[in-house]
Amino acid sequence: MSKNFNKVTTAGLIIALGIIYGDIGTSPLYVLNEIITGRVISEYLILGSLSCIIWTLTLQTTVKYVILTLKADNKGEGGIFSLYALVRRRRKWLVIPAMLGGAALLADGIITPPITVTSAIEGLRQLPVFHDIEQNTIIGIVLGILTLLFFMQQFGTASIGKMFGPIMGIWFVMLAVLGCSHLVDDLGILKALSPHYAIDLLTTYPKGFWLLGAVFLCTTGAEALYSDLGHCGRGNIRVSWIFVKTCLILNYLGQGAWLLANYKGQVIPSQVIADGFNPFIGIMPHWFKLAGVIISTVAAVIASQALISGSFTLISEAMRLNLWPKMKIHYPTEEKGQLYIPGISFLLYIGCTGIVLYFQKSSNMGAAYGLAITMCMISTSILFANFLVSRRVLPGWIYLYLVVYIAIESSFLIANLEKFMHGGFVTLIVGGGLFLVMYVWFRSRKIKNRYVEFVRMEHYIPMIQELSNDRTIPKYATHLVYMTSANNPKEIEHKIIYSILNKKPKRADIYWFVHVDVLDDPYTCEFSVEHIIPNDIIRVEFRLGFRVEQRINLMFKKVVAELVNNKEVNITSRYESLEKNNVVGDFQFIVLEKYLSQDNELPIIERVIMKLYFWLKEISLGEERGFGLDPSSVTIEKFPLIVAPVSKFNLKRVYMDGGEFE
User: Fold this and answer.
1) Which of 37, 100, 335, 559 has its CA 20 to 30 A from that of 410?
2) How does DSSP assign 250-280, residue by residue?
3) Strands 525-533 and 491-493, how do they pair?
4) How far is CA 393 from the centre of its chain?
5) Distance of CA 13 to the CA centre of its chain
């Protein structure tokens, strides 16, 4: 795995271009627009801004992600939840940055498609024939493209995905050629390669520090380099990034040279930019503009597609790690990593549509963009520092890493906060809502665990055996299967024992207890079997990676088939008429579903969390579908969850004659 993981191949490089660089690769569409809006175009501004862009791409993307963070692979997989899985045993509180980062990435998936597609379509105004196109028409086109894009998700992107790489290859070559063709407009633009101009802009330019909010947009897709590590491999990402970064920098330099040559000393009003002014379209020759806008739109759609697919992967990981409610997952193709979550697709579509309708123009969307993703980058920095600790890296290097990147990313965060009243609040509302869902789901599990009572299995084995042999009780099923959360094979939840012996005695020939252990490895898929009482009580433990779909119904059938082949268990029905004909006995799964009992005394915060949890549970998949069980063979039993029993209850006995019990 290690050899292939670091191996560089032509096919791997093309795939990397297609699925990783959409977000960061389309940033030239809007970054310089954000910087120059309402400001005098001067050598001071342009050289300083371009220097900031170049060194942001170098320090933030190249050094932090490409060189350092890509080393933190989890058996070949990357992304914030893969990183969290590597370090979650170190500190319990690390779940907070993991949830913040995950919520920020999802918020990014809602904001990136509108801004990239709208920026590209607004480029139509640079063409004489479309110069007077109305904003409502542009909004209609953008919504049409987004609707088609989300509609296509359910069919998978295996065949379309193979085209992404070559198209993005054309896109990056176009960026480089357009940029190079305008370097001669002002060769002095090459001075922007020096960090001196970036420092000068931030320290002496009026309100120069706040320009970082616009500069940050050039690196918003950096997290994708790490998230898609498993799809492309470390070697392919590192080599392809050299080409991508070169093309990006050449294009930014070309845009800067064109601005200085044509608009030096002028102020581009925000209304002019809103009407379609864009240096990215401006550097295109007139004869190429229509083709350029079409290629830009296709690149924007690919960037959006990559983020949407990434959101599906992110949510599926969060579900396995118990950080998100269980949702229905479809697998439209056999290709690894191809999945579709209808609920998340609908959520993203509503979010993207809302962003387009609320902000109307790409120049307005820039204010909402970037604020959430800074939180994701800070979260990654915290988790990666803990990863370095777990690898016994010298403390001096770890502190240096933290000081440098927390300082850089905090600066970006503070600068982005200036956008708060201009639209940044939308990002925080979206990201905050997504974080709240994760936090409620995680915290409620901790509260519930106070109530879960485990008992020693050995104390109840004789009673279960007696029940199994008691012919005065009608047989409930030949094989009775319970899902258990007990990590210790010698223990079992008291509620399961209660279900078998007390609630309504359930006689069966064989009792199965199935436990699913979600591992920190991404793709482990194995099981073990313990015959507590041979042919009477059996425990099956599945050890599944956090990226493995929990199709327990199919997995359990495979386990039973193997046990039968090995003559470890006899699954033939024990009804006399069926046994002599070798008819296989029935299997019945029992799923215990909780509801919040009224008999609780919880602090106000915990009461709210538990109410939100049960509301989320109502609109998410039930336990049986979450485990991939066949509903026809599942019985759901409800039982009250009492996490904080009422302790003070004033009740006294009275007698009919008026006497009182003393």
Assistant:
1) 37
2) HHHHHHHHHHHHHHTT-BB-HHHHHTT--HH
3) unpaired
4) 28
5) 24
CB 213 within 8 A of CB 31: no
- What was the pLDDT predicted at 598? 62
| Residue among 175, 172, 196 at smallest CA distance from 252 | 175
Asked if the model's pLDDT at residue 660 lies above 60, the reply is no
| Per-residue pLDDT tens digits for 424-457 | 788 888 888 999 999 999 998 888 777 777 888 8
- CA atoms of 415 and 124, how far apart (whole Å): 31
- Distance in angstroms (rounded) separating the CA atoms of residues 77 and 349: 27
DSSP string, 394-441: -HHHHHHHHHHHHHHHHHHHHHHHTTGGGTHHHHHHHHHHHHHHHHHH
CA nearest 214: which of 20, 438, 52, 25? 52
CB 363 within 8 A of CB 274: yes
Q: What tokens does 402 get?
A: 């933290």
Taking the C-alpha atoms of 401, 406, 411 and 416 in order, what is their torsion angle to the nearest 10 degrees? 130
Residue 106 has which token pair? 């999802």
Please list the residues that pair with 538 across neighbouring strands: 512, 531
Most confidently predicted of 41-50, 274-283, 441-450, 571-580: 41-50
For 456-494, write each residue's pLDDT tens digit.
888 999 999 999 888 888 888 889 999 888 888 888 888
Which residue, among 644, 616, 641, has the nearest Cα to 440 in the 3D structure?
616
Percent of the chain predicted with pLDDT > 70? 93
Q: 474: which DSSP letter?
A: P
Instruction: List, for residues 117-142, the tens digit of each pLDDT value.
Output: 888 888 888 777 777 788 889 899 99
SS3 569: coil
With cut-offs at 50, 70 and 90, classify the pLDDT of residue 248. very high
Compute the distance between CA of residue 436 and CA of residue 431 in angstroms, rounded to an integer: 9
Grouping H, G, I as helix, E, B as strand and the rest as coil, residue 25 is: helix
Give dist(CA 511, CA 469) in Å, integer: 12
* Selection from 225-229, 270-274, 347-351, 470-474 with the highest mean pLDDT: 347-351
What is the mean pLDDT of the segment spanning 103-113?
87
Return the beta strands (E) in 118-276 as ranges. none
The amino acid sitting at 273 is I
Q: What is the pTM of this model?
A: 0.83
**Residues paired with 491 in a beta bridge:** 456
**How many other CB atoms are found less than 10 A from the CB of residue 354?**
14
Beta carbons of 366 and 217 less than 8 angstroms apart: yes
Question: Would you report the helix, strand and coil content of the chain in percent, each value rounded to 5?
Answer: 65, 10, 25
